[in-house]
Amino acid sequence: MTTIARATDTLTRDALAVLQPGFTGTTAPDWLLRRLDEGLASVALFGRNVRTPEQVAALTAQLRAGREDVLVAIDEEGGDVTRLEVRTGSSFPGNLALGAVDDVGLTREVAAELGRRLADCGVNLNWAPSADVNSNPDNPVIGVRSFGAGTDLVARHTAAYVTGLQSSGVAACTKHFPGHGDTGVDSHHAVPRIDVDGDVLAARDLVPFRAAIAAGSRAVMSAHILAPALDADRPATLSRRVLTDLLRGELGYQGLIVTDGIEMRAIAGTYGIERGSVLAIAAGADAICVGGGLSDEDTVRRLSDALVAAVRSGELPEERLADAAERVRALAGWAAANRPDGRAGDTADTEVGLRAARRALRLTGADGFTPLTEPPYVAALTPVANIAVGDETPWGIAAELSRLLPGTETGSFTGPDAGGEVLAAAGKRRIVAVVRDEHRHPWMAAALDTLLAARPDTLVVEMGVPRAEPRGSLHLATHGAARVCGRAAAEAVAGA
Hints:
Layout: H1 10-17, E1 19-20, H2 30-38, E2 42-45, H3 53-66, E3 71-74, H4 95-101, H5 104-120, E4 125-126, H6 151-166, E5 171-177, H7 198-205, H8 207-214, E6 219-222, H9 240-250, E7 256-259, H10 265-268, H11 273-283, E8 288-289, H12 297-313, H13 318-337, H14 352-360, E9 362-364, E10 377-381, H15 398-404, E11 409-413, H16 418-426, E12 431-435, H17 442-454, E13 459-462, E14 474-477, H18 483-494
Parallel strand pairs: 1-8, 2-3, 3-4, 4-5, 5-6, 6-7, 10-11, 10-12, 12-13, 13-14
Antiparallel strand pairs: 9-14
Helix pairs in contact: 1-12, 1-13, 4-14, 5-6, 6-8, 11-12, 14-18, 15-18, 16-17
């Protein structure tokens, strides 16, 4: 049965206001427009909702016809995690590339241009940047999404990103509080645990969030991680000690607190999405992100009904829900007041992402390297993509290299026989091996062993975290797999 909210039903309107749901399709379904009229204040866009910038602009205009101050959120980090360019790869390098350059002015410029493009599409809340310090090199879900492994580096670039993004009228949502960098488990699948003492967390992981707060980040996203030094019983998203006592109290943050996707297994597999949503709001969260996997009206009904029932049973204080809803509306008001006036295109810097990718490129062995003039064979040694990145977005350098060296051929390889399969497929062509986090994948390292033993003139392009020792006749570290990173590497290979 569908919950029907009356105009005077404040409780139901507040329950809808704290949800940030997704939907399917490239136009707004009727149920979503109806829910906006009933109190829903936010809508989330994912890759499945995006075809072209013009189509997204029409979609957001449709949403605003239903509610003028609606928050339209998206997960557009740039780099490996892109929704606006999900089918082509991003025009912006990700955080690791920006950290490698270490020019805070450039990071600010990249974020401002990314924000300008979002604003032109009618998006006003971006679930970015990642402020995680990637202290665990084997982290399966953060990696190139982090500015790096140094606390101060991450802090200054997080602040620059927040400032740049919000200069375009798009609210930043700094994530994943209190820090997802020292994890060996992906919270899409299970609950990661960080077993370090509170002093380490304060000196390492919390510093970038303090910088983001000082820079005025309008939103912060919680992580589904268990940090026993902070709360031994509940993950951060459901922990009052983390969200209220630490983030609100100790760090003095007064903006919107958004949960990471509530349907991720770390929460859904342990508490269920209804119970998880109630516990999150009770703990101090203000908005529930949902829709990456569950994107229908029934999900919105289940969550709003669960929140209403929790208030009526006394489990969730009505004033806590009302406060959360008011914080959502306050951010919506800020976004509406800061909406660009239509002249943002006058300040566009469409090449800033490519310039940044070129500056992030690191070459080893370049002194004796002669650029290729004949089309090579590009072998992509392809790992399983994590859910945050997805497997729909293309990566590598083959497309860009084909433009510079027509006739370039390519193939994707994985598993213990990858090296031999590449040699057979490449024939006499020069091999360009493209890898992603070689240090995390023994099969990938073994494939390179095979290739370099048989073909020592093989070029190696590392598009993940460049932790493995550089090897190959030329080693190129791009610090990310965005389309512009691939273009920068292809230019170096072809001497363009």
